[in-house]
Amino acid sequence: MKKQWMKRVGTLVLSTILLAAPAYATVGGGTVGDTNGGGLNLRKEASTGASVQEVLDEGSFLLVEEKLDGWYKVVHDGVAGYVCADYVDFAETLDGDFDYTATTSGTSVNIRRAASTDAGVVKVLYDSGSKLCILGVSGNWLHVQDEGGAEGYIRSDLLRYTGARPSALPAAPTVATATQAAAPTVTQASGGGSVSSGTGSQLVQTALLYKGYRYTWGGTSPSTGFDCSGFVNYIYGLYGYKLERVAQSIYNSNGRLITDRSQLLPGDILCFGWSPYSISHVGIYIGGGQMIHASTSRTGVVISSITDSYYTSRFVGAKRVL
What is 175-320's CATH topology? Predict the structure, then answer.
C-alpha cells in the first residue's frame, strides 16, 4: 500500500512539474541567410503547406528552440513558428538585436555572470513577470539585461517571450543642428592630441541630440542605430576624433585612464566590465553622475545614473580623449 501511495504521489508531482514548466527553451540562435531578396516565411507548422505568420528579412535574428528534419522551431519578435533550415545560419551562441523582451515566469530567478549554474549571481529577480531585454543566446541560456541595467544570463526555460518592440524613434537631427553643436574651437596639444575649452561640454550637448535613437548590434550611425561603442565612435567622429571600434580596444588604446570617479569630466568615455581585460560596455559621461549610452534594443540611447549599483560594480575606469 505504501509503495502504491508513493508511486501515486511521485506521478502527481511529476505531472505538476510538467504542467508548470515554461513553454520555451532554446538550443541556440540563428540569422536569416540569403533568400534572393524574397525573405523567409515563418510558418505555424513545419510544413510548406502551413500558413505564413510573417516574412522575415535577411539578417533577422532568431531564437532557435528545436532542430527538426529540415526545419527549425524558432521565436522571432516574440512570435513562435517554423522556418526552413536551409535559409538559417545556426549558431549555439549568438548575440544580436533581437528586438523583443522577455519576462520571468517564476520568482527568485538568478541572473548569472555566465551561461552556467556554476557562474556567480549578478542579481536575483524576486518578482514573477520581471521585464528583460534579450541581448543574445548561448545554448539553453539567454543573454539578458533587466530594467535596472543588470546584465547576464538566465536559463531560457525560466522566461516567457513577448513581442514588445522599442517605441517609435525620433527623426534624426538635421545636419545643420548637428554641425552647429559639433563645431568647437580646437587647438593642437603638445602631446599630439587636441584640446579645447569646453569641448567636453559641447560634445555632450551633441550626444544628447541622439537620446532615444535605437540600439542596433554593430550599428554606427543614426540611420542604422548604434551599439555602445558605435555611438561613442559616432559622437567623437563629429569632432574629428577616430577611436578604436570596440569597447575593449577603446579602453586599451584611446586616451588617458581615469580611475577616480570624482575626477570625471563631461565627455570622458566610461568603461564597464568585470576587469580591465573584459570591457563589455562604454558610454559618455555627461556630468552630475550620469552618462548617455546606447544601452539595449529595448531602451536605445538613454541617460543612466552611474551610481546605480550595476554600473558602480562594473566601473573599470574612464578614458579621457579630449
Answer: endopeptidase fold (from Nostoc punctiforme) (3.90.1720)
